[in-house]
Amino acid sequence: MTQSEMIAKKCESLEHHVADVIPILVEFLRQEVEKSGFGRVVFGLSGGIDSAVVAYLAVAAFGRDRVHPIIMPYKTSSKSSVADAKEVLAALDLPLTMVDISPQIDTYFGLQEDATALRKGNKMARERMSIIYDQSAKLKALPLGTSNKTELLLGYGTQFGDLASALNPIGDLYKTQIRRLARLLSVPLSIIEKPPSADLWEDQTDESDFGFTYEEADVMLHMLIDERLSPEEVIERGFEASVVESIMRRIRQNQFKRRMPIIAKLSSRTIGIDFRYSRDWGM
């Protein structure tokens, strides 16, 4: 069997596991949001597949009146992304809330003329998340995350930016599984079928940044993380060594993004080390 055939077969298996998750995720949202003392949710709606799936799940959990998506374009953001986000709002009968982040981004970088595209992208991601948390206080709504398992494992996102949230309903689903889930939820096909992009600059795509496809990443991540195979065992099964090594390097290099900040241990009970209770402890 060729590598392409193995990837196709394993992706089909991954997608099969999504068939029954919708009621589980809807109930997860209801229980965790209410347990936190909130009755509403707020999140960024980019026009991509991940935030669209979160929007559909949130409406199924809470109804349209308690769901608050925000579209936050920058002046160079793709017009089609904004149009796709509006299509989700129309399909779910949700009101339009749009905040153009161009003025604050341009004001800051007006004094930082040597800023790289990476710095600007990170700043935009954190600006958007700061708006979501501000609206959280205004609306008494819990911020939802929209990062999937592939992005979280590869570190493809900005710490305290788009990777931040109070609750993430899709963080244990790989990108190929999100695509399947999107079809089950009847997300518009224009969103499901377009190339995934962080929309940081013109013609950017996630897969061109990676150097491999989401299908390749998901299959190898599943073997490395869920099946707990070593990189050598994955390579022995016929997968390209350079891709396996690139994925492992990304997982290791981005571990810090998946952890809370380290606190210097000085007492007998240090937060995060010895003092460890679940988030809803005492609620």
Automatic annotation (TrEMBL):
Record: residues binding Mg(2+): 50, 151
Reactions catalysed: deamido-NAD(+) + NH4(+) + ATP = AMP + diphosphate + NAD(+) + H(+)
EC nos: 6.3.1.5
Keyword ATP-binding appears in the UniProt entry: yes
Cellular component per GO, a single term: cytoplasm
Keyword Transmembrane: no
Binding site for ATP: 44-51, 146, 175, 197
Residues bound to deamido-NAD(+): 126
Gene Ontology molecular function, alphabetical: ATP binding; glutaminase activity; metal ion binding; NAD+ synthase (glutamine-hydrolyzing) activity; NAD+ synthase activity
GO biological process, alphabetically ordered: NAD+ biosynthetic process
Pfam families: NAD_synthase (PF02540)
Domain (NAD/GMP synthase): residue spans on this chain: 25-261
Enzyme class name: ligase
Family in the record: Belongs to the NAD synthetase family.
Protein name (record): NH(3)-dependent NAD(+) synthetase
Species this chain originates from: Sulfoacidibacillus ferrooxidans
UniProt lineage: Bacteria, Bacillati, Bacillota, Bacilli, Bacillales
Chain's gene name: nadE_1
